[in-house]
Amino acid sequence: MSGDCYFVIMRNAIHCFCRLQTFRYIFVSISAYLLVFALMFFFVDIFGLNSSLAFFITYALAYVFDYISSLRFVYNKKHNTKKLVIYVCYLLTFFLIGNAVYFFLKELGFNYIIQTFLAMVLVFPLRYRALKYIVFK
């Protein structure tokens, strides 16, 4: 096979893989989590905010990014009031869960970066199921 043929096969495989909803969700989530880490670093280490306040602000911004990205890229849905109301309920629920996990880990003495990472990892599977089966069904 020529090099062009391999390129076409790889391009088609990547295109097919990108169509998978789970992959798109993981991509959006990783992007949001990178945003979270960048904002946490910026707010705490550069701007000097308290890590708890920084976590609160960071997650509020990350959830706005998540809604828009999930709506358009992951689930290919159009915005409507009902979806927004359900998403706000989802947001409040997971915002509280994320903060509870974060503060629990803070009480255990973890570094704010470790707290942020563990909060994301622990909440990740629950968020996916809630988005897929409740918010954007």
Q: Tags for this entry?
A:
137 residues, mainly alpha, 5 helices
Summed up, what is this model?
The protein is 86% helix and 0% strand. It is mainly α and 137 residues long.
Distance between the termini: 43 Å
Q: Which structural class matches the secondary elements?
A: mainly alpha
Counted beta strands: 0
Coarse morphology? globular
Roughly how many Å is the radius of gyration? Answer: 18 Å
Describe the structure.
With 137 residues, the protein is an all-alpha fold. Helix content is 86%, strand content 0%. It has 5 helices and no strands. The protein has helices at 3-19, 21-46, 51-74, 81-107, 112-135. The model has no long low-confidence stretch (mean pLDDT 84).
Summarize the SSE layout with pairings.
Elements lengths: L2 H17 L1 H26 L4 H24 L6 H27 L4 H24 L2
Helix pairs in contact: 2-3, 2-5, 3-4, 4-5
